[in-house]
Amino acid sequence: MLAAERKLRIVDYVKENRIAAVSVLAKEFNVHEATIRRDLAEIEQEGLLRRTHGGVIVDPGANIEPSFSERASDQLDQKKRIGRMAASMIEDGEHVILDSGTTTIHIAQHLVNRTNLTVVTNDINVAAELRDSAGVTVIITGGELYRSSYMLNGMFTDQILSSLHVQKAFLGTPAIHPKHGLTHPEAQLVVTKQGMIRSAQEIIVVADDTKIGKVSLHSVAPVQAVHTFITGSEASDPQVRSFQDAGVRVITV
Questions:
Q1: pLDDT 10s digits, 61-88
Q2: Cα(217)–Cα(30) distance, rounded to whole angstroms?
Q3: CA distances (Å), 23 to each of 12, 34, 169, 190, in order?
Q4: What would the 3-class secondary structure string for 55-97 be?
Q5: Using CA atoms, how far apart are residues 101 and 84, in angstroms rounded to an integer?
Q6: Which of 37, 46, 89, 150 could serve as a FRET partner for 117 with CA atoms 20 to 30 Å apart?
Q7: 3-state secondary structure (DSSP) of residue 132
Q8: d(CA 119, CA 111)
Q9: Helix or strand run (H / E) with residue 221
Q10: pTM of the full predicted structure?
């Protein structure tokens, strides 16, 4: 296992268990404790976890996303509205990317009866929504499984994305800012999102209003890379104008 993949899994493991000892992590990942300590030092520098004596915990103040289950239930009505609008922008015959996330899954739910459509995704949950859709071809990127959210990430994911060309990519994000663009708390996930952006002619960000104005540790893309931003009507007029002034088309639902 590559070091980057192991660190991704360590973060995932600690998110699920809230705390872990170095000895436990060494056994779980079949490496020396010294290797785990080095990994933890690097992970802590990225603001994802906080080391304690002999182990590591999820720091409530750390720059880290909530768990998948927490995100799935948060702003649910708004995400459903965003998903419906985003799906209406997809035309039969198109090739599109659906990023992993708790908003993009609602896009997939509105595509089940479409025809002559190809959907590329790195999310097993998204793919499962389309499993019985005879008119939709589903391409799963492959990669390392991010267990807490059924997302696929890593070298294999990035290799597949680099070989594809689609009309539209629908990206989720935990943070979007009119000046700082798209950012993410986890460095391991940035490359995949950047690959999706490079593979698509049109970039559409789907995110509820609570993500607006937030800035995370790692830069994904400047706001100029975004063509359309779909968010909830809960977004304020000044928030909407700040993106429009930056040249982004904003749709509120």
A1: 545 556 566 666 678 999 999 999 999 9
A2: 29
A3: 17, 10, 41, 29
A4: EEECCCCCCCCCCHHHHHHCCHHHHHHHHHHHHHCCCCCCEEE
A5: 15
A6: 150
A7: coil
A8: 9
A9: strand 218-221
A10: 0.75
